Recover the amino acids of this structure.
């Protein structure tokens, strides 16, 4: 049986681990070839360890194990030239581009009154400008293919603010504005643009001591465990779960990437266990 | 390969033709058994012909050709007793209920001052109270199954104030209110509730809205409200069914409270 995105090529940023790797595997399992980029390095203001070249190599290995092709490059979404070069090279090798998952993102926290300017700027540069860079590099290839699907990773924080993450909320809200504008500008080319809005996802971006501090500063460090944090994350959701799995976001990305959604554009799709309607 | 809703049972209202039939076929293709209802009778207030018993028989035939089971009953969503009997009988025969597609609806075109009390009442009774009745008779079965997915068919008219469709717009906005409330009330039972919002769909209802162009001609400023962003004027029933399938399947296990537009970008213009 042909996969749901068989014959298509997908460009995924932040593909070394977490949601990005999950998207690469899910799309590959349904027949897509993958162009993957990831910084594989640290951003100075990010309080948890970011991905490594070994992580990206693992994504490559898992996609190839599915008998799909993958072109993976270390590239920083803040560097448009590097993103464009990586994508152009991928398209040269794989022949076309149909799907874009602008997924790369960072998380840090602090009140807006006290946040230093570098923390603000890094967040906006990666989580908002980096998304625009990925799309801008991709548009000529999607037009050449006669259409396509762009999926921007926003967040529940792109539609509803929570305190202590004002720069993240601002960037993720900005992604919605970017998505809505792109949906209009690219519709004549049959390029669809939608955003996904996860609640907390069970990845390294939340399962780390820095994020635990944000959610459990009242607990002694030794007691800030995954199990202890689960009910606190769960309180945000409507469905009785603490967090969702990366594959749940990938399933939404897959649907939006496939021709099943050929007339769906401009949607803000929450995978949020009902957080937004509470 | 197992289907994406294999082993599940879906209850679909308005299943004799159009989007409802398409949902039945798409879900059956992916492994679901079907409980189908349709009024199969004309309304005095609706100018286009409604579905017939032959239409419902055709849905049955098509689902059975996919080697799935279907229990089909002529029932009016305005009659909660008849609806309850139909779904209870379907669950008795098919064993469970997992998916609800509250799809049955009517639509008439007229300026506000030509909305008769009968048109108003029929539209609200069918498109809003009918959705409510569908939920009320279904939810006990979903709770018994340990969870489920309810998909209510709203419309771009559930988001925008489409001119010359006042009763339809009121009902379709109301569907969003029901869905949001029920998403909250039913979450603890692991029941998800979402709405789908199609733009114009190529069905007997979607193409039966005579008179709209003439009314827009009176006030061309209103025309763009009906325009899509993507260069398509109308979508196929199957496009809506694919969204229903996603929401019905476990791939959407943590998606609830969503207004899911399948509208070629109509509502973002």
């Amino acid at each position: 049986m042909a996969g749901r995105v068989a014959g298509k090529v997908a460009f995924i940023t932040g593909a070394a681990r977490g949601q990005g790797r999950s998207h690469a595997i899910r799309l590959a399992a349904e027949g897509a070839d993958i162009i993957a980029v990831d910084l594989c390095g640290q951003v100075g203001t990010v309080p948890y360890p970011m991905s490594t070249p070994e992580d990206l190599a693992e994504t490559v290995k898992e996609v190839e194990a599915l008998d799909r092709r993958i072109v993976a490059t270390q590239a920083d979404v803040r560097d448009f030239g590097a993103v464009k070069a990586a994508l152009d090279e991928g398209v040269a090798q794989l022949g076309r581009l149909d799907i874009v998952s602008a997924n790369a993102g960072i998380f840090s926290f602090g009140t807006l009154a006290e946040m230093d300017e570098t923390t603000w700027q890094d967040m906006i540069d990666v989580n908002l400008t980096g998304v625009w860079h990925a799309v801008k590099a991709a548009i000529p290839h999607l037009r050449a293919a006669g259409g396509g699907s762009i999926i921007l990773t926003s967040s529940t924080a792109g539609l509803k603010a929570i305190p202590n993450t004002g720069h993240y909320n601002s960037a993720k809200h900005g992604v919605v504005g970017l998505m809505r504008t792109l949906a209009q500008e690219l519709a004549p080319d049959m390029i669809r643009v939608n955003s996904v809005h996860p609640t907390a996802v069970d990845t390294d971006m939340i399962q780390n001591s820095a994020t635990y501090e944000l959610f459990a500063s009242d607990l002694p460090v030794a007691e800030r465990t995954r199990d202890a944090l689960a009910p606190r994350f769960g309180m945000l959701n409507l469905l009785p779960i603490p967090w969702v799995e990366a594959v749940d976001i990938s399933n939404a990305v897959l649907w939006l990437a496939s021709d099943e959604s050929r007339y769906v554009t401009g949607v803000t799709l929450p995978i949020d266990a009902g957080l937004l309607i509470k | 390969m197992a289907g994406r809703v294999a082993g599940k049972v879906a209850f679909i209202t308005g299943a004799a033709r159009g989007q409802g039939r398409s949902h039945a076929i798409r879900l059956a293709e992916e492994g679901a058994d079907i409980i189908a209802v349709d009024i199969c009778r004309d309304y005095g207030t609706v100018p286009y012909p409604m579905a017939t018993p032959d239409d419902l028989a055709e849905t049955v035939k098509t689902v059975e050709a996919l080697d799935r089971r279907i229990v089909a009953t002529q029932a009016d969503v305005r009659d909660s007793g008849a609806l309850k009997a139909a779904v209870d009988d379907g669950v008795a025969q098919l064993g469970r209920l997992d998916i609800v597609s509250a799809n049955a609806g009517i639509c008439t075109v007229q300026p506000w001052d030509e909305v008769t009390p009968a048109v108003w009442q029929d539209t609200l009774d069918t498109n809003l109270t009918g959705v409510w009745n569908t939920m009320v008779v279904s939810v006990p079965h979903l709770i018994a199954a340990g969870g489920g997915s309810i998909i209510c068919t709203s419309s771009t008219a559930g988001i925008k104030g489409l001119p010359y469709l006042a009763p339809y717009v009121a009902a379709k906005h109301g569907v969003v209110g029901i869905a949001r409330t029920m998403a909250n009330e039913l979450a603890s039972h692991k029941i998800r509730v979402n709405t789908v919002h199609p733009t114009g769909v190529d069905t007997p209802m979607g193409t039966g809205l005579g008179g709209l162009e003439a009314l827009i001609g009176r006030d061309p400023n209103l025309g763009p409200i009906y325009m899509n962003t993507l260069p398509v004027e109308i979508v196929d029933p199957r496009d809506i069914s694919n969204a229903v399938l996603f929401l019905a399947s476990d791939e959407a296990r943590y998606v609830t409270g969503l207004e899911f537009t399948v509208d070629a970008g109509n509502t973002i213009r």
